[in-house]
Amino acid sequence: MGVMERKEREKQKRRQDIIDAACEVLSEKGFATATVDDVSERVELAKGTIYLYFKTKEEMFMSVFVMGLDNLLEKYKETAGLDLMPDEMLDRLALSFYRYYKEDINYIKTSAYLLHEDILDKIPPQLSDEINCKAGMALKILADVIQKGIDQGCFIDVNARQVARILWGLSIGIAQTTVMRTHLNVPEDEVKKLLISGFNLVKKGLLCDIH
């Protein structure tokens, strides 16, 4: 490995370490009280070093949200590669989101904070574009499954992208609402049940009556 390549890998690792620390801090404190100093202490890097990677607190914490989208996309793509009928695929995608929720709950927590704070206008345009692009990729996976069902005659003729948006909003809403209600001792399996029920309700509306 060359010197330049090694330095680049070290740089990417340090950036990932900062994002991981920011995710933990944001999950514990929320956006309003979380600071760059908190992240600096957690990751054991100088505050100035963090600003070499992220120009603002908002950019750093929104990068946590981007990382969560990456993890969800990986699970969606893995599921979309299976050889399944469209209705079965929707079931699996619901479970894929649940796996994301279980494995990456801190990302769900951060999105609940970030998307309800007035910070979207404080991040670089390229980061905003990246968020929109990756969210769009997730929507496309859902929409492609629905369109496949329409093309195969399994689903009624609907606007596939609109239904995908419904499923996306349903998934995010269930996860975020449950996370924000943890102090009410919501059962751990509640998210899984709600996701499956929500997807099933949408699926029942899509299925063609072949009788």
Written overview of the protein:
The protein is an all-alpha fold and 211 residues long. The chain has a domain of 145 residues: Tetracycline Repressor, domain 2, CATH 1.10.357. It is 75% helix and 0% strand. The protein has nine helices and no strands. Helix 1 packs across helix 6, helix 4 packs parallel to helix 7 and helix 5 runs antiparallel to helix 7. The longest helix is centred in the first third of the chain and has 27 residues. It is elongated. The N and C termini lie far apart (64 Å). The mean pLDDT is 87.
Topology diagram in text:
Elements (H helix, E strand, L loop, with lengths): L2 H27 L6 H8 L3 H7 L3 H24 L5 H18 L1 H10 L10 H27 L8 H21 L9 H17 L5
Helix pairs in contact: 1-2, 1-4, 1-6, 4-5, 4-6, 4-7, 5-7, 5-9, 6-8, 7-8, 8-9
What descriptors fit this protein?
211 residues, mainly alpha, Tetracycline Repressor, domain 2, 0% strand
Q: What is the number of strand segments?
A: 0
| CATH first level of the domain at 62-206 | Mainly Alpha
The pLDDT mean sits at 87
pLDDT < 50 stretches = none
Instruction: State the fourth-level CATH superfamily of the domain at 62-206.
Output: Tetracycline Repressor, domain 2
Helix content range? over 70%
Q: Identify the overall geometry.
A: elongated
Structural class by helix and strand composition: mainly alpha
Number of helices: 9
Shape-level CATH architecture of the domain at 62-206: Orthogonal Bundle
For the terminal residues, how far apart are their CA atoms?
64 Å
